[in-house]
Amino acid sequence: MAQASRSPGGVDLLVTGGNGQLGRAVLQLARERGLRAVGVDVAEMPLERRDAIVRTVQQHAPRAVVHCGAITNVDGCEAMPVDAYLVNGLATGWIAQAAAAIDAALVYVGTDFVFDGKASAPYAPDAVPNPLSVYGGSKRLGELAVLAHGRDDFWVVRTSWVFGPGGRNFPRAILDRARSGLPLKVVTDQIGRPTMTLDLADALLDVVALRPPGGIYHAANEGECSWHGFAVEVLRAAGVGHVEVGEQTAAELQ
Q1: Residue 123 appears among annotated catalytic residues
Q2: What's the Cα-to-Cα distance from 243 to each of 90, 183, 227, 238, 249, rounded to whole Å?
Q3: Are the C-beta atoms of 72 and 47 separated by less than 8 Å?
């Protein structure tokens, strides 16, 4: 297949999921770095439509795509697996094909949910995935679609426990529940690395700028905690540390 040419008026960066908490952070920092960055979301580029994806990528003719768009609601993915695999898996493949067609680089934001969580140490990028949820499985399908191109400028960047300003996330849910007076009970036996959107966005832009070898990378903030520990720290930082946070195991939650 002949490769489409990139318009000389193309942008530096196209960010999918541009209205989401991570997409907004990527756009903010990209513009602070002096990049011509455009964000698109479902209104401009519904991920269920391959034609819309191809048209949007060709229209903006970016030098690089940062693909943040996804269905990230884990429970929602379980309830609607077809939608999850379409948006997180197949659509990621369409974006990869559209980027490759104009010789644009691609950063795909992955997740630690591609693993089963049974390891006692942080997973290495070459660890064998074993997703246990529809969300994890659909995101793994997206990874494979990106990696199948074998390009040196296609990267999968996995992260974990993402939170940031203006989004629906764990800290916001905890604060809303605490302020409503409802009881709090949070899992103690799941450990991870909470990752701030602005820090993750910086890392994603560094990948685009520094061009490491194509493949899989892990990016998360330093330090680790349980969901319970995270909740306690969120309440303390918000000045409501007096609110009691009950404990439970992941098995008890199911």
Answers
A1: no
A2: 43, 9, 16, 11, 20
A3: no
| pTM of the complete model | 0.93
Between helices 91-101 and 134-147, what is the axis angle to 10°?
A: 20
Closest to 228 (Cα-Cα) out of 160, 174, 172: 174
Instruction: Give the pLDDT band of residue 1 (cuts 50, 70, 90).
Output: very low
Q: Could you tell me what percent of the chain has a pLDDT over 70? A: 96
Other Cβ atoms within 10 Å of 125 Cβ, number:
12
Burial of residue 3 (CB within 10 Å: 0-12, 13-18, 19+) is exposed
* Beta strand pairing call for 195-196 and 162-163: parallel
Q: Catalytic residue, from 85, 108, 135, 217: name it.
A: 135
Distance CA 241, CA 229 (A): 12
Contacts of 153 (CB under 8 A, 6+ apart): 64, 105, 106, 211, 214
Q: Could you give the CA distance from residue 58 to residue 56 in angstroms, rounded to a whole number?
A: 5
Cα separation, 89 vs 87, in Å, equals 6
Nearest one of 97, 202, 194, 200 to 154, comparing CA atoms: 97
Task: Give the SS3 label for residue 227.
Answer: helix
- Give the dihedral sign, CA 13/204/140/44: negative
Amino acid 159 reads T
Distances (CA, A) of 115 to 79, 156, 191, 228, 254: 20, 15, 13, 21, 19
| Dist. CA 99–CA 102, nearest whole Å | 6
